[in-house]
Amino acid sequence: MSRSMDIYDAVVVGGGPAGATAADVLARNGRSVLLLDKAGRIKPCGGAIPPRLIRDFAIPDHILKAKVQSARMVSPSNNLVDMPIGDGYVGMVDRDEFDEWLRERAKESGAERRTGAFEHFDRDSDGTLQIHYKARHGGAGDVGTVKTRMLIGADGARSEVGRQGVPGAGKIPFVYAYHEIIESPEPAETTAHFDAARCDVYYQGDVSPDFYGWVFPHGHTTSVGTGTAMKGQHSLRHAVGELRSRAGLSDAPTVRREGAPIPMKPLKRWDNGNDIILAGDAAGLVAPASGEGIYYAMLGGQVVAEAVELALANGDARLLRTARRRFMKSHGQVFWILGMMQHFWYRNDKRRERFVKICEDRDVQRLTWDAYMNKELGKPDHAAHARIFFKDLAHLLGVAKA
What pLDDT shows up at residue 377? Predict the structure, then answer.
């Protein structure tokens, strides 16, 4: 009997970091899993992955296209603040290759892969989910149907699985992002504004009125992009053109262009209480202020898969809700802090100028890198936090020099 006539334990819609990780975890647990993914789907992403992700998800060194050792913050007045990492590095990946490697790993673990676009679901008379999808070529006869006990929607910020199956899933606030993947300059062509071992972050209102722009190198290619929640009021293509000019990259050949919405807040509810649950961007798992999503997507895929395993093993769909509880217990405080930072510091160029100025502080740099690299707030450094508090207060009151 073909698998399409059987009932899968889980169908995962979307093969990005969240979906591929969820499929991998379930397949390694011996579950029958179908990973359904569109062909040629890549989203705007700088491609940075922290050491915590590399360790926790066993990413081999050959997948890394570069190892970044510092970041540079650029203020509205072009004040440059370098933030060296010190020991360690941030890995850089090309999402085109990285996502495919994750999908292949899931397949090697036992997941079945199919290329197709989720259309809708319905139920048998006994309540079993039937998933309908359009196959690769999308012709009149290229429609498939499979049955499953659980459906995981990892199909992006505008998740069709979420829209159809999880109450409130269509109410996530978005940043609309756009980037251009370009060929990186040869070492001999490197300019004063571009360093292949440094990520540059532009906090300038003409680049983004409410987010930031980035120049993130990953080996032979570089991601140059920006985002905004003000869709239609700010030209992202024009802003990226300006970024390329400022970084001395205007003449670099363009490899590809991509745009997509990026969520800025986790959903209050990830599942339908029965047999559908969301992961990654579909659940809103992108960090505010930083826009970081790969680590949180993969962690979200893992905790969702583990919740699905619990629900299947115990026959209790209520256990699906443990995924969100676990994630928010570990990272909810960080998301709240980053959300407040974005709301306050990104509002205008005067505040952005002061924000970049604060980043000159060595305590700020150390605590920022510790939190980013290890994905935890760490042990309290009361002296450092006190110094930062009073420096921040001075900037808020306008008595510090910007």
Answer: 54
In terms of C-beta density within 10 A (0-12 exposed, 13-18 middle, 19 or more buried), how is residue 329 classed?
exposed
Query: What is the three-class DSSP state of 137?
Result: coil
Residue 191's pLDDT is what?
67
Could you tell me the CA-to-CA distances from 139 to 35, 112, 134, 135, 388 in Å, in that order?
21, 22, 8, 8, 60
Written as one string, the DSSP assignment of 82-94 is EEE--SS-EEE--
Are the beta carbons of 388 and 361 closer than 8 angstroms? yes
Please answer whether residues 22 and 12 qualify as being in contact, where contact means their C-beta atoms are separated by less than 8 angstroms.
Answer: yes
Distance CA 123, CA 144 (A): 15
The answer to whether 121 touches 244, Cβ cutoff 8 Å, is no
Residues of the chain with pLDDT under 50: 1-4, 140, 381-391, 393-397, 399, 402
List Cβ neighbours of 243 (8 Å cut-off, separation of 6 or more).
202, 207, 213, 215, 224, 225, 226, 249
The pLDDT of residue 382: 43
Structure tokens given for 324: 């969100």
Rg of the Cα atoms in the chain: 22
Across the beta sheet with 198-202, what order do the strands follow? 80-84, 70-74, 198-202, 213-218, 221-228, 174-183, 254-263
Tokens of 95: 């999402």
pLDDT of the residue at 311: 98
Pairing of strands 174-183, 254-263: antiparallel
In SS3 terms, 319-387 reads as HHHHHHHHHHHHHHHHHHHHHHHHHHHCCCHHHHHHHHHHCCCHHHHHHHHHHHHHCCCCCCCHHHHHH
Q: How many CA atoms lie within 13 A of 260 on its CB side?
A: 18
pLDDT given at position 113: 96
SS3 116: strand
Q: What pLDDT does 131 receive? A: 96
pTM of the predicted model as reported, rounded to 2 decimal places: 0.90
- Spatial CA neighbour of 181 closest among 257, 235, 249, 237: 257
